[in-house]
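Table S7 (text form). Paired inputs.
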Amino acid sequence: MFIGHYGLALGVKKAAPKISLVMLFLAVEFVDILWPLLLLLDIEQVKIVPGFTEVNPFDFVHYPYTHSLVMGVLWGVVVGFLYWLFKRDFKDAAIVGLAVLSHWFLDYIVHTADLPLTLFGSEKVGLGVWNSMPLTLLIEGVLFFGGVYLYAKSTRAVNSQGEWSLWVMVVFFVAANLFNLFGPPPGDSIPAMFVSFMVLQAIVLWLAYWVDKNRVAH
């Protein structure tokens, strides 16, 4: 799951207009932002196996600290609480926390049976939609473009940048997703993977800031 997570964040903006798009993007991708760092520290492990699924080559060997259901709940509580400390808004803090947790449930749809339920247990789950490219494209497309539609309908541009910045972001996401799906598999260098993930996240968060500062809820 890639653009589907961001689609959910865009859609949530309709229900929580006071939460910045940057914060919502950070929330839905929090564990994927943490994951490359834990790979770099060799706390979690992944193997690159071309053809492992029809969609991507990642064999997620060990990643309970970022992608187990138990830690999804815990990270949601932590991030939601930190948001509450700054904003003192319980409803929005709960939404942020649930956005963090949503990552596990969306991943559950697409991952093979590799998502841990607990930190130390052996039971792992996943519906395996990544074994079907058409189904993956359909599900992610519905989530992403549904979120874009809700965001576009619930906000309005305050200047010319607000008119076209949203569509620049949409084009970027579509291009990045197509590259992820059909481009060459990444190398097995964890430091290089870490850098590429961080650069991608930095671009995405900058786009979110740019779009959101030029649009307001209505």
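Next pair, protein 2 of 2.
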Amino acid sequence: MQPHPNVRAAQETLDGAGALDGSGAPSVIRLLPDAVHTAAAAAAALDVEVGQIANSLVFEADGVPLLVLTSGAHRVDTTGLAASIGVARLRRATPEFVREHTGQVIGGVAPIGHPRQLHTLVDTTLDKFDEIWAAGGVPRAVFPTTYPELLRITGGTPAEVV
């Protein structure tokens, strides 16, 4: 069975970047038996702490897409984040906006594999874990990585988002 195009694009990005997991092995997307639409569901399926899940949240920042990778244990303070990055308006993107800019659906948005690289902020809280998990392009796909690797492969900027 061929992987979904979003999963294939995300894995190709991981491979092209030489992305590693927490053990130093190549990061490989894993397909879970069921879709995991929340950090809590992903953590339960993987038997890890909810804080180890790197949620990929797309926001509309003054009309421009902004990808925020936040610990599953956090909620993004949009008012504080807007002020810290100097935008007048920061709001959760619509499903259509997310698909337009990532090619992926909410609930499975990978931090990589998009048609164009998005400006990305990465929650500094994720740095306390030896290994973190991110979505792999569809709601049942995930991959292991580390905070430094996530910053490197996304070109992201460390940020406090809560």
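The chain has five helices and eight strands.
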